[in-house]
Amino acid sequence: MIYSKTIMLTTKQIRQKYLDFFQSKGHAVMASALLIPDNDPTTLFTGSGMQPMVPYLLGQKHPLGTRIADSQKCFRSQDIDEVGDNRHTVFFEMLGNWSLGDYFKNEQIPWMWEFITKELNLDPKKLYFTCFKGNESLGIPKDEESAGLWQKQFASIGIDAKVGENPEVNGMGEGERIFYYDEKKNWWSRSGVPGNMPEGEPGGPDTEMFWDFGVELGQHAKSKYSSQPCHVNCDCGRFMEIGNNVFMQYKKTAAGFELLSQKNVDFGGGLERMAAAVNNDMDIFKIDLFDGMRQKLEDLSGKQYGAFEKETYAFRVVMDHLRAATFLVGDGVFPSNKDQGYYVRRLIRRSVRFAEWLGITENFTTKIVESVILQYEDAYPNLVEKKDSILDGVSKEEEKFRRTLSQGLKIFREKTATLSEGQTISTEDAFDLYQSYGFPIELTEDLARENGLILDRLAFDAKRKEHQELSRAGGEQKFHGGLADHSEISTRYHTATHLLHAVLLKILGPHALQRGSNITQERMRFDFPHPQKMTPEEIKLAEDLVNAAIAKDYPVSWAEMSFEEAKAKGAIGLFEDRYQPIVKVYTMGDINEKAVADPSSPTFSREVCGGPHVEHTGLVGKFKIVKEEAVSAGMRRIKAIIE
What we know:
Layout: H1 11-24, E1 28-29, H2 54-57, E2 67-75, E3 91-100, H3 105-119, E4 127-132, H4 144-155, E5 162-164, H5 167-170, E6 176-181, H6 183-186, E7 187-189, E8 202-212, E9 239-253, E10 256-270, H7 271-279, H8 291-301, H9 309-330, H10 339-357, H11 365-376, H12 382-385, H13 387-416, E11 424-425, H14 427-437, H15 441-450, E12 454-455, H16 457-474, H17 488-508, E13 516-519, E14 524-529, H18 536-552, E15 556-562, H19 563-568, E16 582-589, E17 603-608, E18 623-632, E19 635-642
Parallel strand pairs: 1-2, 4-6, 5-6, 11-12
Antiparallel strand pairs: 2-3, 3-10, 4-8, 7-8, 8-9, 9-10, 13-14, 14-19, 15-16, 16-17, 18-19
């Protein structure tokens, strides 16, 4: 086969080719889950394609069967400060396919080879793969099966692919295309390396796929790693990982590791990275997804992307952040100073800040957001449907931040009024400007230079890192596999959430659909659209109706059915565009009667949901609303506890 450089696929075509390819292999294609996980207090965002799939990888039956594929939108807040180089983005799409106890390595590896070399037309001479080197002390063998299967694919087109050992030390030998790495690189479990896994935990080796942009570019020689051997996992920029095949085949026991009875496959491949490989351009921001945004920024600024390093950095931050903000607001997360909303606010404010590097000082964010919506209108029609609210949420935050900038300048002058040229701005003052007033540290640095003052950036960064670690430890809990908290108290809160949802729709009207929820061991939180503050009478009525439903002790049951059947039965459904053909529906009351949020009726609530719930509502406990407040314009929040 000839691998032509003239075939240029759009990112939209790559996404569709992937889904069509795996559908032809018997996979059910499901829609992307939301960026906000359903009833999962362990994480703020959906950060990987497999995150919504963990319950099924652990044995729960998937309503669509044993072969699943999708393109999952993802957001990783921890990468915000990394954006600006040619490959980091906080928002991305992850192409995924799963085997839930169905096929395994013998099918997955040839399929991936077929997809990337025939569907995407990637040149095999520029492809490299890694496999698990094994751990003799734990009794886990080297994954020679995967390495052998990759060799077989190369051999099918006449390439003798050699296998390399210890590439971090030995580099890449002539003819080597497959490399063994240890568990830090090529092992997956929710707990990390095998030694950290608790008894009963599943895990397994993975095999990663890399694209080579070419040694002739000299990336390694001009990188800080030039004194070390270059290999596919080197960070010099020559190679880019485009996908990872996880083979979940082991379970840890008291005696060591044993084979799982149900072996699973979990593949994840970055859509944007695959597009960069198709382009053979290591700059992700040059793929077609960013064309409209990039052109609009060039028009607004009069600058050219790629002309100067600092300006190119700013282009990337603005494009990435406003794309992410568009999708987050589209999923119901509006700018605020708490939880997910804090990150939306930060994305928009950083965009405004970096746009100033391009000379853009007037309101501009909605113009970029419109480009994002236009680019994704076919794949994500919900962005078009919610365009007005997205534009409104983003523009209001931009206007608010521009006022903050003005205030920050005033505070800066006050804090530095007594300083003379050559003196140092205190780290505490710089951090106070940053944390309390949202004043960018880069702007503080610029002002310091203009006034002949010194700012200790290292001290500031150390203080910011200390603050981030404290915030992360106390607030944003690290993702440990995506499993929602299924403890007794969380299950009771989850059931109370359904009761409250039904009650709010009854009291306030059909617009009051859930737009976000969060459950901890101490309380529940429920977000919903409503134009004004609830009255004390409405709050009391909501609380009384929920408690009446609890007191009636309705039975709670579930059934799988088509989404259309669920709608016909009057089930409450959130974000209809993301549901699968077969859904799980929970009913609180008689399954044969219409759900009416009235304790005198035989059925109180019916809602599409993955669970879990208590077996009957009497187990919930006494429900009490402790606060009703505004989250953003037109969005309210109820906080409640169970006593």
